[in-house]
Amino acid sequence: MARSWGEFFGDTDTADESAADQEGFFSRLRDSLGKSRRALTDQLAAAAFDAGDEEAWERLEEALIAADVGVPTTAELVRRLEARGEVGELGAALSQEAAQLFGEPSSLRLDARPAVILVVGVNGTGKTTTIGKLAQKLREHGRSVILGAADTFRAAAEEQLEIWAKRAGADFVGSERGGDPAAVAYDAIEAAIARDRDVAIVDTAGRLHTQTNLMEELAKVRRVIERRLEGAPHETLLVVDATTGQNGLQQARLFGESVEVTGVALTKLDGSAKGGVALAIAHELGLPVKLVGVGEGIDDLRPFDARDFATALLT
Ligand SMILES: Nc1nc2c(ncn2[C@@H]2O[C@H](COP(=O)(O)OP(=O)(O)OP(=O)(O)O)[C@@H](O)[C@H]2O)c(=O)[nH]1
Ligand SMILES: [Mg+2]
Fold it and tell me: What DSSP character marks residue 223?
């Protein structure tokens, strides 16, 4: 069964979703990964996989690399399959190995009060939307939430977050003190403490991982958060647009160097043929994928479930 929001949030009572809801998301995930899956399975369709056939292994490697799984992770998957001796049904064997590669399911760290979540990523990857959806789910699970608009780059960005805050029933903290993103992050935590809120989520402006000055600005936001509240930020979520494939891996690497990313939200899996990058992020960077986005709607975000993801991608 899919990972539920309750489990992801660490709730003790997790009987919060109907099986139908979870199945509904699985079929959306499967539809979303259709392009990625077809890219892989078309290559692999050739009859039964013959582990003794050198060319069959080569076709498999090529297919995985074409799906943006990346060279090191492809090599690891192939190594694990070979170690099995008997591969059997290839899709099933591959999805089992892929699910294992993702490791233990991870939760969102919400123990602290307030728990501070910093959200970072390249322009347009889906940061603000993901925050909106997440805030909504947190509210549904009884958490009080503050959203901080540390994206002070564009006035529209602040409005966009404020609309999500209203919709979710979350408090909103904007840039009353001018355009300093670190000051907004500070104010949001201050407000969360003063009002005794459970979670503060800080939105930031999109930036390219190659823009040194903007990456330094982000590191400063993080430092200010750290100094204001010990242990914060408890999560630093990097939002990666799945359609960017291997470039997303590079983003994860460089954002990680600036702000200690603790998890990835992989968005826009609908419309991407590069869903295999999730495996590369998990294996090459050892970063947990925590959330997946499969559309623009409020219910199009879910906690990442390795087994579901691997099944939807590979079988
Ligand atoms: N198809 C699809 N669209 C998405 C998904 N997540 C976000 N989007 C869309 O992507 C676009 C950009 O989303 P935003 O949330 O504004 O992205 P952002 O990272 O905050 O952008 P900046 O603040 O400008 O850097 C919007 O049109 C969203 O609706 C997803 O999972 N699937
Ligand atoms: Mg934004």
Answer: H
